[in-house]
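Hi all, long-time lurker, first post. I run a small reading group and we've been trying to get comfortable going from sequence to structure in the token notation. Rather than ask abstract questions, I figured I'd post a concrete chain and ask someone more experienced to write out its structure so we can walk through it together at our next meeting. Sequence below, copied exactly:
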Amino acid sequence: MFKRRLVGDRYLLAAGEHLRGERTYTIEAPLGGGAFAAGYRAREEASGACFVKEFLPARLPSEREEIRRIFAQECDVLRRLGNYELCPRLRDAFETSGFQYLVQDFIPGKDLDSLLEARTQIDEDTLVRWSLCLCHALAFLHSRSVVHHDLKPGNIRMNADGDPVLLDFGAARWYRTADERSDVLYGTDGYLAPEYASASGEDLATGMRMDIFALGRILVEMMVGERMSQAEIDRRHDQIYGSILHSKTLDIGFVRAVFRSVSYNPQARYASAIEMERDLMESAPPVVRRRPAEINLGTATDTRPREGTLTIYNVGGGELSADVSTDAEWLEISVSGVETGRRQAFARNRQTVRVVAYPDRLAPGARAQARVFVSSATGSVATTVELRRAVDPSLLSVHPSSLVLKAVGGQEARGALRFRNRGSAPVRIRVTPPLSGATATPAEFDLPANGEIEVVLSVPAATDAAEGPYVVGWSVEGEDRPAIPVELRARPGGRRRWALGARGGE
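-- Answer (accepted) --
Happy to help. Here is the structure in token form:
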């Protein structure tokens, strides 16, 4: 059972609790929640910070099936969106101890709601970029036949690049056919399209137009720089429209597109964010981004090429034309998926790049770092790539090749293993003693190039153990090597006391 503590009127997971799905996630802090779910900041050992959404137990029997339906629907939507950069990725979905959990990317920045509440002044370049990002993200959803249903500033958060990311797909729906209908409608007051009040249901086309209205409401608030009710926008529509046109240098097509999206007539609005995106793209230059910022290709234990993937995308307008290059002889890139080289070029707003490393171009034991540069007319970004080539196993040896543990009275047993590195680079070695209570000193160390280190194995006199077989384990750069056999020889009866002897050689 998990430890929980009372937060408001809910018992939420305590910091330090571990959730086990495909991987293990350690809870760090609660982040709030809604009627059916709670959110947490958590950490996974390999990938770092993540967001965990916990679907809470039903308070009423009638809610049980509804919660399960919402969980399944959100899983469907997130899997449909895949690895899109302006939405959090689904990392895991599982059930344990009667609770359902979704694990997604953690978006570290402030949400747009808090920025608007603070009346944050947004410069025009940022305003246009944020607007384009939101339109790009919603256009991607609509291209995948997904309606968000709950667009609002509180569901938009800034990522590490300072770009807005769409969050919370708990109300989203994936329409598998154009004529599919739903009689369940969602939304938040202030961002609901006017036709919502009289609607008895929706299809994909209706839902996309409602999303457009909510997006337009958000963009108007961003242009004004503060939260506004729909009544305020209605009352001051002409004044706001005129003041934005005359007091700012915003592209007139951009302003017209925003105000078209908040039309009370659904047919006068954009039919989808895909259509709105086309109009907005002419209002700003491209802005290049890349994900991830770092690629660690790990340790190569052979000379076969190792690969990573880099996604390059445009959060601005126009079309992104870019050159991709690397500064390392051991690294090549490909934008076509087949041909690799040191330099490539493309003209697309979203491009996947293969990053291919060749360990045979590095010396055994070398730890190398390189960069992949993405350059366009409006800026450049770089991604760091790391690779470690393992030392040649034939250049490492340990003496003796087997050990014998003998029983003697009342004394600590001690013995030694000598590790030798005939290679030209240092290596990291870890030694695991043969039984509980025994020690290896040092247990983890860097073995220098052309060097030797002695590891002392100690077994306390009071150590009890069943008859073998036992081994001394050791690994090089995290890769296990053949274990060293240990033979136990004990006098029958009484408490066993162990001493360490050695035999054999390389």
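A couple of things your group might point at:
The domain at 288-389 is CATH 2.60.40.2310 (Immunoglobulin-like).
The longest strand covers residues 379-389.
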